[in-house]
Amino acid sequence: MVAKPPPGLLRVLVAFHEPQALGAGVSVLRAIDELERYGWTVSGWVPGEGPLLELASQRLAAVESSERPLAVSVRGWRESPGSLTRLARTPGYAREFRAALRRVRPHVVHANTLLALPEAALARSCGLPVVLQVHELLRPGPKRTTAVRVGARVADVLVAVSDSVASMLQPHAGRTPVFGVPNGVPHMAAALPARTGRPFTVAAIGTVSRLKGTDVFLRAAHQALVQRPDMRFVHAGARELHRDASLDGEIGRLLDGVHPSGAVSLLGPTPAEAVLSSSDVLVSASRSEGFPLVTLEAMAAGLPVVATAVGGVPEQIVHLESGILVPPDDPDAIAAWLVRLHDEPELRRRLGEAAAGRARTEFTLARQAEGMHRAYLAALNLRFGPRPVRRLVRQSA
Questions:
Q1: Residue 22 confidence (pLDDT) above 50
Q2: Based on the domain organization, do 226 and 293 belong to the same domain?
Q3: Fewer Cβ close by (within 10 Å): the C or N end of the chain?
Q4: In the predicted model, what is the mean pLDDT of the chain?
């Protein structure tokens, strides 16, 4: 724990659901400076050791941490140290979180994904206003319906990172208002990298998983290399988080079949900036996305993006104006566009410049922070404001 924030300021505690530095957590940390302009002192709860704890400790006024015994699936509960040990440790984890709330004394608790529902419920039980931000798009079905309904009961305000996420929330939100607050990205000096002797490079960034379409990306690479063997493909992202042995086997076979040898590389966790600065195109082959951060980062860097038209991606990219949209599970379409972008530098330049302009005007950290500020104030007013104010808040969402 670092020093408590000074008294007398608006205080919010962000409850993260995992210690990995993935998009949902990084997107909040990037907006801290802008949130502070509205008078918020931002603290954090990070459930265990990991890269996010280090980042949060650098950016936030106070950081509390404890190893999270909770899991989000039956398989997760069975993993080491086992379900019985996890259950035995859960009351202690709850006590530590409540103690952190007493030390930080936040005016609002910001639960940063649906997976942080347990922390949101604990904050609610302490009488604190709760803002639940939803980054994920869940598959339709009873599990999604239950999760959203519970979230709407626990939270004073729901925040959706895209229209597609809002559409998932609203049918089950009841009287809980849903605010739309897209993620933003820092302003970057947008320019296509100079290719001084290096090969034409296609990048993908994200955890290795079927959800992120790692297998689709590798199949597209195979097909593009048949037509343009001078291309090179790189994938940056953690390989150990998906727990899918069949995917590991499939990736191994795909890599073994790459020709020419070495044309595709899995880099593991690598800073996005380093990958984007040495690439010519970004591919996002995801099967589902709420509002991905990596596509916005590539757009802000002036790279053309080829992305599957899923979830909130079409809210970021206008097809053939600020990027390329393709159907999900279609490596043929991805490969065809990569070959065309390889052959047409003017098309790459036009798409990259338009993407940078759209990111610079539409998806800024200032707009993200303004939206979160409104959500925090709405939660406070809904909990403590007089009835006319509460009615206005619900009408304005």
A1: yes
A2: yes
A3: N
A4: 92
- Both 176 and 314 in one domain: the answer is no
Q: How many helices and strands (H and E) does the chain possess?
A: 17, 13
Q: Locate 134 and state its tokens.
A: 């939803």
Token pair in block for residue 133 = 């931000």
Judged by DSSP in three states, 160 sits in: strand
Q: How many residues does the chain have?
A: 397
Instruction: Confirm if 325 and 307 have CB atoms less than 8 A apart.
Output: yes
Is residue 179, in this structure, part of any structural domain at all? yes
Residues 349 and 376 in one domain: no
| N- to C-terminal Cα separation, the chain | 35
R_g over Cα of the chain: 22
pTM score, whole prediction: 0.92
Burial annotation 328-359 (CB, 10 A radius, 16+ → b, else e): beebebbbbbbbebbeeeeebeebbbbbbebb
pLDDT band at 1 (very low <50, low <70, confident <90, very high): very low
Cα dihedral sign for 215, 217, 220, 226?
A: negative
Closest CA to 25 of 57, 71, 61, 66: 57
Separation of alpha carbons 304 and 341, rounded Å: 9
